[in-house]
Structure formats: C-alpha cells, structure tokens
Amino acid sequence: MKRSVKALVAGFALLFSINAAQASDIKIGTFLAVTGPASFLGDPELKTLQMYVKKINDEGGVIGRKIKLIHYDTGANPKKAVNFAKRLIKKDRVDIIVGASTSGTTMAVIPIVQKAKIPFISMAGSVKIVEPVKKWVFKTPHTDKMAARKIFIDMNKRDIKKVGLISGSGGFGKSGRGQVLALASEYGITITADESYGKKDTDMTAQLSKIRATNPDAILNFGFGSGPAIVTKNIRQLGIKLPIYQSHGVASKKYINLAGSAAEGVRLPAASLLVASMLPSSHPQTEVIQAYKNNFEAKHGPVSTFGGHAYDALYLAVEAIKRAGSTNKARVRNEIENTKNFLGAGGIFNMSSSDHLGLGLNAFKMLEIKNGDWSIVE
Known about the structure:
- By secondary structure, the chain is α/β, with parallel strands linked by helices.
- Helix content is 44%, strand content 17%.
- It has helices at 2-23, 39-58, 78-90, 103-116, 144-157, 171-183, 205-213, 227-237, 253-259, 286-300, 305-324, 329-337, and strands at residues 26-32, 67-73, 96-98, 120-122, 137-139, 162-168, 190-197, 218-222, 244-246, 267-271, 342-343, 348-349, 364-370, 373-376.
- The strands form four sheets. Strands 2-1-3-4-5 form a five-stranded parallel beta sheet, sandwiched between helices. It has a four-stranded parallel beta sheet with strand order 7-6-8-9. The chain has a three-stranded antiparallel beta sheet with strand order 10-13-14, covered by helices on one side.
- The protein is globular, with a radius of gyration of 22 Å.
C-alpha cells in the first residue's frame, strides 16, 4: 500500500514537472552593444528582438509557450560580454542565445557557449565566427570574406587594379583586413598601402596621405562605427577624387548622415533589405523584407541591415524550436544546422554541418550612394 501511494505521488510529481516545463517561458538570452561605439548595431537589434518577441507572444507564442527575452548591454566590451554570457547560462538559465553585436564580443564568448553546449546565433560579421565550424555557434550576417569578394568583383568590372587599404583596429576591422589581404591576388588586385585607425581616432588624414602617395586606383575601408564616416570625409577634404569602397559594416543610413555629401559615390556590399522598395515583386525575399521594413520603420525610423540580422537570428531560433518540438538544446542545435530555404532579411539561409551561416554571395547587393540615398549597382 505504501509503495502504491509513493508511486502515485511520484507520478503526480512527474506529471506536474512536465506540465510546468511545458507552461514555462522559453528563455532567449541576448547581449548587445546598445550603447557605446557600436550602438548603431545593437540599438536596432534590440528594438527588433523586442518588437518581434512581443508579436510572437501576442500570436500565442512558440510550441504553446511564451518567449521571455533576457537582455544585457555590453557597450561592445568583450569582458562584459563574457560576464553576461556566463550569467545568461548559469543564473538566467536561458534556452538559447542570440547576439552579440560585434565580432570582438562574439569571439570572446565562443569558448563559453561551446563548453556549456548551448545554441548561440551571433549577429556579427567576422568569418572567423563560423570558419572553422564550431558545433554550437551560428551567425546571420554576411561575412567579411564575402564582402571582400563582392567588392573585388566590382573593382574588376571597373578595371581597378591598385587599392589603398585602411581598416579599423577592432575585431571586425582586423578580420576584414585579413580577408582583403588574403583574397586580393585572386582578383588581380595589388594592395598598395595597409593603414589602420583606432576606435577613438577623430582624424585619419595622416594615414590617407600615406595611401595617396602610393598612387592607388581606389581606397577601401573596412570598419564600423564613426570611423568609416571620418575616413570618407577626410578623403574628400584632402581633395582625393578616387573611388571609395566601404564594407557592409556601414550598411546603415547613419553612415550616410555622418559622412554627409562626402558619401556621394561610395560603394559597398549590403543586404537587399536596404533597397527593399527597389526589388521586383517576384524576388523571393520581397514580402519578408518589405514587411520587416514597414514594421520597424513605423515604430523606430529608418531600417538598417543590423536590425535585419536580429530578425533572422530570432526566427531561425524560433523555427528550430518549432521543429524540435521542445527547447532541448541538442535538438534545437541540430534543427538550426538543418535550416533549409529560410527566407530572411539577409538572404535565403541553407545551413549544414559544414556551413553555420548558410548564405551565398548572391545574398549581397552592390550599392552606391546617390543623392544621399542607396541605389543598386548590381
């Protein structure tokens, strides 16, 4: 009799725990650079996550459960990112992490998420995040390697053979510089100068004067934040009339606003999101990116590709949880890796065990700034 009572109690306890687990919130953790030098990345990312988590919850949640977003602001500081990642995993006990904003903060936490065996979808650009593949790490933005290739292809079309390079000293700038130097010869391009600047620098005329002395056909800047806008202004202030290329690290109207008229004619690779209204209705992404653009701009103003990266990260996670039918971390990780034909803001994602990004070079558009706005080159 005692045994049967004990069994009955144990059964009720198990049933209660199962029901409680089913009713509990799905915890999505994130740490973003909402303030500081990379705020133009983190601010639209957080706004996007908050907006769409609310939308998902208002529509009934995921697998019968609501999403709880737990966020910390890193200010783009890798040490803070490490502390916040540990807190999300150990104290907050999140089911998945989406974010960080920058390559430096992402690289800093990779050993932690790998050890904890928790799915992690980054919103940062460096190819080093996913090459080589790390089992628990994924990302949504196009890589710096892809950006370098897209830029060099455009340079080939314009018969540009000699390029002066300047890059930021942060994780994204360093990684982008490495890709440019590694790929240039493949496209028949010679790098005539290799200069850099720090995140607090406010004048790059000295570096640009050195670049001009090497007689390049164009100038390429790899960086994000205010640095690229300063570089652009300084180039024009020095009277340099060469073509200017920037990376996808400036794919935001904020760059145009900061650089002003100096940005006229600047080219850069970016996601189709920036030119959503220019895409044909037959384009497979048109409906998705136009809806995101309309929703974001109705509440927060001009859209940027960075908010789009957050949209992709969130929905890649949500769709994986749906397919897994649970928040079991190993199952969710497997389902992210098995993502096929996901229509996102950044492109059409097809991931695999050897590709934790899942985007091709055709996910990029080459854009040129004309009359203070974006235009499509190809």
